[in-house]
Design a protein that fits this description.
This protein is of the alpha/beta class. The protein contains eleven helices and ten strands. A hairpin with a 2-residue loop joins strand 3 and strand 4.
Length: 317
């Protein structure tokens, strides 16, 4: 079932979450055990992130460095298929621009289509750690908009090789990301909204937001989107604060603001266990307000840990 249809037709606020594939060498069973408690809340779908290859340099001595390409979290397609089979709910793998050329993207989408996975989240992805700005692969996509267009073209039976015959169109529902506090690289909020509108006009069927910690940002974002003619479902994304270092990590990494009240509460904590409890309580307040506003779903970024999200869901869903 397409995620956009689920979101458009729900009579209540749904619970969904995102997971990271395990580190290379990790176990699917360990991953499943960590998220199994969350299945109690009947998520209508599960998102699976994708991480491009990283470049590391190994010191060989004598001033020589060896460049090595590694992928620390491979297996998004396999994990997605295994979860969809095990959990009997749609899975939404992320498809990213970074690390893929157009043909590799097409082949990944073909694999997903063969596996019966018909929902994807199209995102650009972060720059490599060694890069200050995002650099696409040769013959790859520099922007999510172009990635969306490629996926929709396949839905229309248009592949990269225009000499193919007897083509079967794919049937992907495409979600994209939205930024209630503006994408860190966007020149201004107006530009960011215009670009989101272009992705929706190109065929994206719903939006999932970046994390935020003050609901006023989400409500203002939705209002602005509606004013600009973006009428697809817009799902708020939340991440509970878990460690004191998040006070610096989250704003720097995601370009977001933390409310003064939340910052003071975290600064007054003497250990991360207390921080984790503050994060749970703050997310519970956010979630209850969003449910009261009748949002289609609340989406949680678990970042590989589910115990705090479980406690939030138990109080709200």
């Amino acid at each position: 079932m397409h995620i956009a249809n689920i979101l458009a037709n729900t009579q209540r606020t749904l619970f969904s979450f995102e997971i990271l594939p395990p580190l290379k060498g990790g176990s699917f069973e360990d991953l499943y055990k960590s998220i199994e408690p969350l299945m109690e809340f009947n998520p209508p779908y599960i998102n699976v992130t994708y991480h491009q290859e990283e470049v590391v340099y190994k010191d060989k001595g004598n001033g020589l460095l060896e460049k090595k390409v590694v992928r620390k979290r491979p297996g998004t397609v396999g994990i997605s298929a295994a979860l969809q089979y095990r959990c009997k709910v749609p899975v939404v793998p992320h498809i990213i621009c970074g690390g893929f050329n157009k043909e590799e993207t097409e082949n990944a989408l073909i694999d997903l289509n063969f596996l019966g996975i018909h929902n994807v989240l199209a995102v650009r992805g972060d720059p490599e750690r060694s890069q200050k700005v995002f650099i696409p692969e040769p013959d790859g996509h520099a922007h999510t908009l172009d990635l969306v267009k490629q996926i929709i073209a396949m839905n229309q039976g248009r592949y990269l090789d225009d000499e193919l015959r007897n083509i079967t169109p794919t049937n992907f529902c495409v979600g994209v990301a939205g930024y209630p506090e503006k994408h860190p690289e966007a020149p201004n909020f107006d530009s960011d909204i215009r670009y989101l509108k272009m992705k929706v006009d190109a065929g994206a069927s719903y939006v999932v937001t970046q994390m935020f910690f003050d609901n006023k940002h989400y409500f203002a974002f939705v209002e602005r989107c509606r004013q600009e003619g973006i009428n697809v479902p817009i799902v708020p994304g939340l991440k509970p604060v878990a460690i004191k270092q998040h006070l610096s990590i989250l704003p720097r990494t995601f370009g977001i603001d933390l409310p003064d009240e939340l910052v003071r509460e975290i600064e007054n904590c003497s250990n991360n266990q207390q921080v984790r409890q503050v994060g749970i309580e703050w997310a519970v307040k956010q979630t209850k307000e969003l449910i009261a506003a009748k949002v289609p779903a609340v989406h949680f970024y678990t970042m590989g840990r589910s115990d705090n999200v479980y406690q939030i869901a138990r109080q709200c869903f």
